[in-house]
Amino acid sequence: MSQIKMSEAVEIAMELVGKGVVIGEINNARNLRWANSALTTNGDTVDQSLSIAAFVDTPDGIASGISSGQVRNREDIAKLVEASKASAIAAGPAQDAMDLVTGPVHDNFHSEVIPPADEGIDFLSIQLGNVLPHGQFFGYAEQAQDTMLVATSAGTRMRFSQSTSRFELCAKSEDRERSAWSGQSGTTLSDVMVTSHADTVLRGLEHQKNRIDQEPGLHKVTLSPSAMADLMIYMLWSATAREAHEGRSVFSNPLGGTRIGEQLTQRKLTIATDPALRGLETVDHVVNLGSSSMSSSFDTGILTPRAEILRDGTLNALGSSRHAALEAKLPFTPLSDNIEVRDAQGSGSIDELAARMGDGLLITCLWYIREVDPQSLLLTGLTRDGVYVVKNGEIIGASNNFRFNESPVGMLSRISDAGDAVNCLPREWADWFSRARVAPVTVDQFNLSTRSDAV
Amino acid sequence: MSSHLPDFLAESALSVANDANASVAHVRIAQHDNRGVSTRDGNVENIASDSATALSVRVVHNGAWGFAATNELTHEGAADAARRALEMARISSAVMNEPIELADEPNYGTASWVMPKEIDAMAVSDDDVVALLQDWNSRVAKSSVVNHVDAHVAMGRDTTFFADLNGNRLTQERDRISAQLTAIHIGEGGFDDMRTCAPPAGRGWEYLLGKGWDWDHELAALPDYLEEKVKAPSVEAGVWDLVIDPTNLWLTIHESIGHATELDRALGFEANYAGTSFATLEKLGNFKYGSPLVNVTGDRNSEFGLSTVAWDDEGVAAQQWDLIKDGTLVGYQTDRSIAAKVGLDRSNGCAFADSALHTPIQRMPNVSLQPGSVDRSTEDLIVGVERGIYIVGDKSWSIDMQRYNFQFTGQRFYEIKNGKIVGQLKDVVYQSRTPDFWGSLTDIGGPSTYLLGGALNCGKGQPGQVAPVSHGCPSAVFRNINVLNGRKEASA
After folding, report:
1. Is the pLDDT of residue B276 over 60?
2. What percentage of chain B has pLDDT greater than the value 90?
3. Mean per-residue pLDDT for B249-272?
4. In this model, does residue A119 exceed pLDDT 80?
5. Are residues B163 and B269 in the same domain?
6. Whole-angstrom Cα distance, residue B181 to residue B133?
7. Quick one: which H or E segment has residue A157?
8. Residue of chain B minimizing CA distance to A43
9. Does the distance separating the beta carbons of B429 and A70 come in below 8 Å?
10. Contacts of A37 in chain B (CB under 8 A)
11. pLDDT of B57-111, one tens digit each?
């Protein structure tokens, strides 16, 4: 992309396509990975791409086609436009076609995109050099700066820049019989204190020296914010208006329509996405290229407000595009790229929550979560890197791991206590979803279905 | 990629690395082209294409890896990537245990390879792809039991160029294609679905026209399969004998053998993310992985294999080797640095990066369970089962971080009584522990039951990378496997 500025490329594409959505993306990222207390792989990458959703008028309606690639000159852009228009014509009228809404015009749309000067990864490598020799450590850190330029034929010219950082530290005992993990998401690795994470995981290994195996079955458990986030993110992805309306979702009402308005838990639990969530801010307007249950390129440019899927325990909304919302006769509910799970009746830290649990298991991480039955949204997965046995409110040791079979929807009614919502890194879904503020919860009769010998 | 540009860019990067006295320098230029078409009830939902090209430089300097990449395909961009890779090596060298060394590999000079195919899928028009999906949709949607039909086609091409300080200049091109159609029923008792079982393959457009898979038969039968499933009784949880069809067993192989025999996992390199492996190095040559009928190979040269190449992303030529022989663990998957680390003379060629923006890591070859020497059919296997379930098609999957405890579902589950299929069951979930499961294999199908399954979406590494991979296998019988009832698990 050296021969043409991204904002110019977007404007040329917009001019050539005439009608549609154009998105230019610039990504700068650096990463470090370590295992057995030594750095292993790393990377320093620069990536740019241009994507076009062409809207083409046909006798039966507006058609849409998508093409993405890298462009160096006007000729490259013209080829992409041509490909997107050809795809649109082949596709025929789009079911979700609607008039584009004019979104904001940002003053800095045409300003130079300057690569970040964040020195976080250098700072981190120095810290790692001090910490890694003092145990068996494994982990990963990345720092990314993403800039997105969005133009539509309705006049929208939006520019979003977002910094994302992620740090993970895992420690294992020399005999590999014990394992603990700690993670942190944010906007810069400069915030990461490796010694603090090392203290957390080494404390976990200490607790695990007293092994108290537990049998599979229905257990009272406290889920860490990370574990709760992983379950609620999957539920959020499944909370689509279209499928619920069609009768093919856990959120479908067996008598017709959806379960909106149904109380799913007695707790004052709220599950929301909110682009203005302080410290976890994200893109606050719809930016879409394709069509799906929850998205439509025709919605690009519309403001994304806070959306509460669950409000004080009651199913309040389901994610949708404008077209899906019309079909389902529900309010248009675009979702943003973060999650907040809070319980108005909850309080305290995870340690305080575990203490209030009395007797039970404290689960720090979930892993390999997959859907077993969409009808109930039954999910399966594993516990990982620390299942602690709590007796009379005290951690007295650690258990073996388990495979769980649970529905995040069915589980809501068995939440008996909760803590304060805190920022956390969802262990399972962090590759796709790292902005989470989630409360730890205590769940009765959590189905730890079978034993896992894994560490 | 134009014909002279890769050499020019490679020289730009390699000269910077050479001048800095890097002991190893690999330049990869990779172009990834992908197309996808999806329909919903016969209406096109998306037609999308993308093309991404980037250049990466990977060096060993001061004993440490350094990696950098760019999609600025100019002399300056390539040279800058080399300098940034050297800088990353400098950062890494401060925190390393032992210097990186690579297992030796012959030099192949200037060479090229193109995956054989009959019809170039990437050149098939969008109109033809849409017409095919709409034809499929109409065949299935006419059934009264089918309320919705989702269908999609995905195809991709990787064109890569590899150059190193030893003079290798290797160009290759490989394709893949995949299609799925799902029929959905919504009724008073809830909803259910049935999906085609055709695996993705390293083939051209001819695959979707019937070469390698009988689409006509499967699409014609799909509504009946779904109708029978909707009416089927729910399974009784407990211990059952299983006859597992290759359309399901490939995924169990992938998770419980494929990933477990990755040597980087066994050595802890994936411990923070994908996990480790129970199949640790001291078990090599003595661990009873399964019954004597279990013979598993790794390869990067199977015909139509999704992991098939001529050379891996470190310039290692494609090979085939044993992973499990007569039930015993005898081999691993390696790249050049892992091979050198454990004292092997040569890598078996499993280095792979899903784009030039990612560093190559050890990824899975085609991992396949070999058929029995006697050509027994699936029906022959079923005859030998008194009370069991015949499982067809894959669906849900999950396995723990050491590859012990797994749980799978499928598309169709046929109850077997006294050696005969008596009808479908539903809500079947099978769960086991890897060595127990493979140890319970008592009967195996012959070559006529062998099928190359696979997936396009195998995930590993940080930052995450996705790899296509194939797994061949015959039908096989497993005794006394734990079966759960998925519906009852949800209300446990």
Report:
1. yes
2. 96
3. 98
4. no
5. no
6. 9
7. strand A157-172
8. B67
9. no
10. 97
11. 999 999 999 999 999 999 999 999 999 999 999 989 988 889 999 999 999 999 9
pLDDT of A117 above 80: no
**Pick among B46, B259, B491 to test the A interface (most A CBs inside 10 A):** B46
B112 and B189 belong to one structural domain? yes
User: Tens digit of pLDDT for each residue in B447-476?
Assistant: 999 999 999 999 999 999 999 999 999 999
Residue A2 pLDDT more than 60? Answer: no
H-run or E-run covering B60: strand B43-61
Chain B interface mutation, best of A70, A75, A174, A296, highest count of B Cβ atoms under 10 Å: A70
Contacts with A323 from chain B: Cβ below 8 Å: none
pLDDT exceeding 70 applies to what percent of chain A? Answer: 99
Shared domain check, B209 and B92: yes
Please judge whether B65 and A37 are an interchain contact, meaning their C-beta atoms are less than 8 angstroms apart.
no
Shared domain for B185 and B296, answered yes or no, is no
Among A394-403, B2-11, B205-214, B221-230, the least confident range: B2-11
A339-343 and A436-438 strand pairing: parallel
- A42/B88 CB distance under 8 A: yes
Rg (CA), chain A: 24
Please determine, for residue B2, whether its predicted confidence score (pLDDT) is greater than 60. Answer: no
Q: Do A291 and B45 touch (CB under 8 A)?
A: yes
Class of domain A6-205: alpha beta
> Is the pLDDT at B7 greater than 80, yes or no?
yes
Domain that holds residue B111: 5-231
3-state SS string over B385-416?
CCEEEEEECCCCEEECCCCCEEEECCCEEEEE
Contact A450 B482 (CB under 8 A): yes
Domain count, chain B: 2
Q: Give contacts of A82 with chain B, Cβ < 8 Å.
A: none
- Verify that B181 and B274 share a domain, yes or no: no
Read off the CATH number of the domain in which B10 is found.
Answer: 3.30.2290.10
Last residue of one domain, picked from the residues B189, B207, B231? B231
Closest residue in A to B93 (Cα–Cα): A39
Q: In chain A, which among 235-264 make CB contacts under 8 A with chain B?
A: 246-248, 252, 254
Confidence class of residue B1 from pLDDT cuts 50, 70 and 90? low
Residues B176 and B287 in one domain: no
A48 and chain B in contact, CB less than 8 A: yes
Residues B138 and B80 placed together within one structural domain of the fold: yes
Model pLDDT, residue A1: 47
Q: Are residues B222 and B348 in the same domain?
A: no
pLDDT band at B5 (very low <50, low <70, confident <90, very high): confident
Domain ranges of chain A: 6-205, 210-455
What pLDDT does residue A110 have? 95
Q: Of B206, B231, B256, which one is at a domain's C-terminal end?
A: B231
Q: Looking at chain A from residue 302 to 361, which residues have their Cβ under 8 Å from any Cβ of chain B?
A: none
Contact B405 A95 (CB under 8 A): no
d(Cα A253, Cα B26) in Å, to the nearest integer? 57
For every residue of A362-429, DSSP letters joined together read EEEEEEEEEEEETTTTEEEEEEEEEEEEEETTEEEEEPPEEEEEE-HHHHHTTEEEE---EEE--TTT
Q: By CA distance, what is A124's nearest residue in B?
A: B91
Do A435 and A280 meet the contact criterion of CB atoms below 8 Å apart? yes
Contact A363, A427 (CB under 8 A): no
Q: Which of A48, A431, A453 sits opposite B71 (nearest CB)?
A: A48
d(CA B344, CA B337): 10
Q: Which of B68, B399, B402 lies at the smallest CB-CB distance from A44?
A: B68
Q: pLDDT (tens digit, 9 = 90+) per residue, A130-158?
A: 999 999 999 999 999 999 999 999 999 99
A162 touches B at CB < 8 Å: no
Q: Which two tokens stand for residue B398?
A: 């999950």
Interchain pair B492, A218: CB under 8 A: yes
Alpha-carbon distance A385 to A171, whole Å?
9
Nearest 5°: phi and psi at A254? -55, -20
